[in-house]
């Protein structure tokens, strides 16, 4: 039986689900899966770590849906230091944290056949994986660009220094290519869906009211709802799992705030809403959200129009864009979504098909991203070969923004 290890700042047992959870669930159908969550501490809990509710279950192995889980928790964790000249201290913190690696992580690395490391703090363990288990195949899950999301300089340096130790890089958006040292080991594997789970009919939780829904806390912009809700008193705005960001919401009868709930429970809201909302802040927000936003994919899967900032709408006819903080554009987007009669469909792989690309990339040459000898980069996608200049990704991001 193949042994898989997943390293992430997410925890497999969390109610909130990201792509790494679905990948791990699919891996569990194919072998033994161990999921190691790093970086929880009293410090991160004070700052609103979404794993705080799991703290009583930290520092021990638990089995959840066939997956062995371990959440590392201590009094502190290394963090980014932004003051000039403090780089050596930041680097020393990360070195000390790695040096104190729990024995369970060492054991799991040594016993793994394939190790998946998700972008973020877990990236500092790339060298450790290859040192402890040189034969293990290493797959990097590029959920985000480290520089875009403000990762510590030490994490970014370690990632670049050890990039060639990675056997395969999963890019859910080709726009993420800009954050990679090169593309020789990259494959395009977009977000997926669990069709069996998603397609189950669910009763409406809205009690006959017209409603829209927002799920999650990532870059949550409360001003969208504060501007929109007074203008649409007959429309309920359901906000699920926004965390502390929800504290900025006005108190109104049609703004309904829900605590974080299990992923499957959120599907009843998405399946029965009039439209979905992805209220991202525009604060140097990464343009690859156009491709990687799971909530936008889920809205489209259920045939629902979505409202999101213009930078995430792109040319997708099912997405109605607005300018954050601009009342007129927000109201126009809502009216557009409410009157949308277009049939919305989505060509999206299952998570099983995504994992197929990660475990057997040689079977999917049409999705590999490779370098050619003249120094240009080319993306091979389906049957087209698209030459990319060194500014291609930036140009595409600017085009999406327009």
Automatic annotation (TrEMBL):
Where does the secretion signal sit in this chain? none
* Keyword S-adenosyl-L-methionine found: no
**Recorded GO terms, molecular function?**
transferase activity
**InterPro entries found in the cross-reference section:** GumK_N
Keywords (alphabetical) are: Transferase
Q: Which gene encodes it?
A: gumK
Entry's Pfam families? GumK_N
Could you confirm whether the keyword Hydrolase appears in this record?
no
Species of origin: Acetobacter aceti
Put simply, this protein is called UDP-glucuronate:glycolipid 2-beta-glucuronosyltransferase
Q: Where is the Glucuronosyltransferase GumK N-terminal domain?
A: 6-172
